[in-house]
Amino acid sequence: MFWGCMMKYNEKNFKENRPTADVLMSSMRSMGYTFEAAIADIIDNSISVQATQIEVKFPIDPTDIFIAVCDNGTGMTKDELFDAMKYGSALKRGRRSEDDLGRFGLGLKSASLSQCRKLTVVSKKDGIVSAYIWDLDVVEKEQDWVMIDCPEDEIRSVKCVNFLDAYDSGTVVLWENFDIMRESSGNEYGELMNYQESTAEYLSLIFHRFLNRQGANKLTIKINNYQLTGYDPFLENHPKTTVRKAFTIPVKDKEGIERMVTVQPYVLPFQKDLTPEDKKISGGVENYRTKQGFYIYRNERLIVWGTWFGRGRDELTKYARIKVDIPNTLDSIWGIDIKKQSAKIPSSIKQRLTRAVDDAMDVAVRKQTYRGRIAKVDDKIDYIWDRNDDRGTITYHINRNSRIFDLIKDKVDDEVWNCIDMILDEVENAVPYQQIYIDKSQNKVNEEIDEERKAEIADKARVLIRLAQKTGNADKMVIIDKLMQSEPFNKYPDLKQILMEEE
Fold first, then answer.
1. 253 with 150, same domain?
2. Calpha distance 61→43 (Å, rounded)
3. What is the pTM assigned to this prediction?
4. Which end of the chain is more exposed for a tag (fewer CB within 10 A), N or C?
5. How does DSSP assign 126-179, residue by residue?
6. Using one digit for the tens of pLDDT, what is the confidence trace for 468-502?
7. Could you give the residue ranges of the DSSP H alpha helices within 340-450?
8. Structural domain for 98, as ranges
């Protein structure tokens, strides 16, 4: 047994081992924050202190580069601000408020300094304005955990501090000296202009439930003078959205207290039933079909979206979305990371969530099935193209439920599959029906099967067999049988014997 486990500790055994300030701070800059996620982390703090007005200031002058996040929240005293600027703030110690959007007491510092070298925070409370500065240049020079206590007479010169004049309390978070951006692009201003639009879209989604509230609890977020409108990824008010009954799942937190996870399945309307406004508020048509799956919210703040967490994806369920609400008391169980950009389903509730998914999928499949009749010559064969007859209107779609797709679609992650799905969608929309008709009528379409084509098909079959075997489907006979029941392999009956005889 390791001897340290049996040792009795007392104060004589204690020895302080402080981390090296500049090394630790520099290493924490590489935690993987995107620019948009870093801004969202600052806004989390604003919402947690009851802010109703938040403004994100981007530069308008290429010679004056900064980012500021300003809010009218409760603000902080000088002592509270000092503590908030500490890595692992004591404000996060003990039991947190159930509406707190923070995680480890690191977000303000880690998110900010992931993007810049100088962080200034000005806060107003009880009529008193205080300010502290983390400057990595100063930390590196002094080789110690030293902040700058901004003198009262200099606070008025801090950028955007005049925002606080209109409110009894509030906070301004100021970013300056964008070294990483400068080194990577050489054009900080241009980069920040590019981020302005993507940040607006990101915040409109992440905080859409706050932005869409009515009354006194409504949150306003502005980027410069542009007011954001919250998205609605579920199109809850659309008449053709199918809303399934919500239910709760009890889960015990790390202290053994029972908490409730709320699950609400939705099946969205078909794209043809959407107005341009519907497409806009749902987050854009490019995400409409590809962002199916779970939408995980922590205290109504969106954490993860558009994923089935490894569950197989299906073309027929592309309109199914599952809203899941979790409290911050279950952070550790759900594996919420510091950046609040990832989560995992606890094994204790996976089965019940699976049933919710199955229920939503069943509705989505029925919706898709009743949409139109798929015509097939032989039900035993997986055709590459499905002919869909919707009340006399004929469309053709690539059969994403074929056995060939089964061999690959669960072997790639959600992001890759979504990209594949988008490409296939555009292939379907770009079929040159008229030109095919003209070429066919003039006998210009070559439908003969030559030996070169046979060899090509055989090579493709070998690739798919190796892929299936590599990912766990080891029975070669089963794999070959699936291929021979699918286009184009079914057109070459002698191919089966050739593949079976190969090592």
1. no
2. 24
3. 0.70
4. C
5. TTEEEEEEEEHHHHHHHTS---EE--HHHHTTSTTGGGGGGSSSEEEEEEE--H
6. 777 665 678 888 888 888 888 888 888 888 888 77
7. 350-371, 403-408, 414-429, 433-441
8. 21-227
